[in-house]
Each structure stands twice: as C-alpha cells, then as structure tokens.
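Morning. Coffee machine broken again, so started the prediction first thing and wrote up yesterday's gels while waiting. Chain of 402 residues, entered below exactly as on the submission form.
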Amino acid sequence: MHSLPAHERVILDRIEHIIMLEQVQSWAAVNSGSNNLQGLAATAQLLANAFSALPGNLALIDPEPVEKVMADGSVEIVKHGQHLLVTVRPEAQTQLLFTGHMDTVFPADHSFQNQRWLEDGILNGPGVADMKGGIAVMLAALQAAETSPDFTHVGYQVLINSDEEVGSPSSAALIAQIAQHKLAALTYEPALPDGTLAGERGGSGNFSIIFTGKSAHAGRNPQDGRNALLAAADLALRLKALTREGLSVNPAKIEGGSPNNVVPDHAILRVNFRPRTPQIVTETDALFRHLVADIERDHEVHAHVHGSFGRPPKAIDAGAAKLFDLVKQCGAELGLSIAWKSSGGVCDGNNIAACGVPVVDTMGVRGGNIHSSEEFLITESLVERAQLSALTIMRIAAKGTL
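Came back before lunch.
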C-alpha cells in the first residue's frame, strides 16, 4: 500500500474496521431467510438507514409476482421481500453497478440464529459471509470512493435484492433493467478463505413437471389407469441420463402418489440442470422438451412443464478479463494476491454477465462454509476487501473506462 499515491492512501485509510464489523453483527442478528417477509422488511429498513449515507435517490422496490408449483399441482403466487435500490448521478457518462443480497438460506425456524467467535478474528453466524459482510464491504468502499474528486464524475446504482438465494425470481427483471448501459459491475458474494475469486460460472435451470394420469383400482382394473408417479420416475431416469461433460442433471424430488390400492393420477418431478455453456443450455432445453413429449406418449399422461434456466452460464469474455485484471492489479498494489477459478455455483453475476456487462461477483469478504451452520467470516478481510473495491472503482473513475 505504500506504493500507492498519497491521495489514494488517504482515502483508503478512512475505511474503519469497527464500523463495518458492527454493521455485520447488527444485520446478521436479524433473520432474513428468503421466505421470512417480516425479517426481510426489518433488514431492508436497516440497510436503507445505512445506505442513506450515499448521495442520490434511495427506494424500496416491490418484488415482481412469482409463481410456484405446489405439491398438489396448483400454481400459487409466492411473496418476496422488497429490494433496495440506490441511484447516484444517473446523468453521468460513466455508469457502474453494485449488487448484493439481503436474504440468507436460514429460515426463521432454523436452529442457526446466533453469532459466536470461533477464535480471534473468525466470526461464526448466519449470513456473516454470505452476504451481510459483503454488503458492509460494498458500502464502505462506496463511502470511501465518494471522497475522491474523480468519483464525482461517475454514476452508479446499488441493488440489494431479497431473493438471490432462491434464484432471484422476483428481481431478475430489475437486474436486467438496471444493468443496461453499465460499464462494469461488482457483486459482493464471498471470496474463498484464501481470497480466491470465482471466474467462470455454469448456469442453472430449475423445473417442476406436473403429471396428470388416470386413477384406477390397483387390483380390479389397473390396466385402465395411467400411472403419473411411474411417468415421473421414468422421466427422472431419462433426464439423469443426459448428464455429460458440461452438464449435470439432478432429479431432486418426486411428489404425489396415492394409496397402495389406487393407480396414482398425480405426481410432480422437481429437477435442476447445471449447464456450463449457452450452447448446452439450448441443446438441453430441446432434449428436455423432447423427453417430456416421449413420456406423455409412452405413459399416456399429460405433462405440464413449469420453470426456466434462470441463471445463464457466465463466461470470461474480453471485458470481464479486463475487469479481473484491474482487480488483480489493485490487489497487488495493496499487497494482496488475487486469483480466480471457475465455480459450479451461480449468483446474480450470471444474470449481469448475460446482459453483456463485465462483472466480478466475489468482491465480498473472505469466509467459508456458507449455507451451513458453520458459516464464518474472516473479519480482517472487511477492511482489506473494502479497500480493494474502493481502489478498483476509483481507478475506473480516473480513466472513465476499464
């Protein structure tokens, strides 16, 4: 850091560890599971209070309606929390995007609710790394950058959505909208404990297939029935057989059935696809639809497909490579070794990249064991990663380009 120009060192030195840690602990103390609307509302208000320190307009945006297939085959609208959107200097020529999520995977009735110190500097708690810590990093970086004269020529939007952990169904359209005309984006998912970032990401598609057959007595006239459960099981096996290099298929759950003496006329198959490339998405979708039609014909049932490939694969194109190189260069000047590797996980970075915007989506804290009760945050990474983000965006501001 001593090699940095004095004006940059002064700005980065303003980032305070204790303020960030207090924010993380305060935010993580409120359960904000994706379906906990009360907890999400409380968290949104806490975040709104904190992000009001930034200039510009702050708003809580209502979620888009989201359909969900219930166990009985009915389709209901599922409610989600509001999304926090901050817009700063929309008239500026250079526009950036910063995203994070306030929801966690831990519902209100989950046993993992409290924080504890595993050892000095290692905090265990729900969402401390994924991503209450990342939100604190984002805010601290923006507050620091706002003190740079160059940054006054940059506009940006901040989106903290309430449904990322369930695939961002109620915020995907908003993400696509605000990604337009952005030079670059940073997303604050946690880095690995050693600081490694995620590079390429595969995509993800979640589907529910509703089967409707025909009931009949299992002993008297089974030949008159059309077994929906058997059709679902057959499709699960055929879909699993699609697994190959670049594609994993996980038939995850079959719901439905009937008493033992009745041919079941209802079943639902839930399945997840993980394609590595856009071409595989296209190929898989066509094969999937073809197999569903085959099942309908072979079992004489009706099948209704509900779902989509909601997370497109994310490649490292020329723009993303330039942004990664800038982050790496800034890291080196801060004494940090920045590396990245491909990840099988997905996040809002997938959706942003699909809009043609270069994105680095693991600019959050160093931590680990996310999505489990062993989740931890390495607290020294709060200032470290905030300085990395601040320096990166100040360099973009100074050049007006990547």
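The radius of gyration is 23 Å. Going to sketch it on the whiteboard this afternoon.
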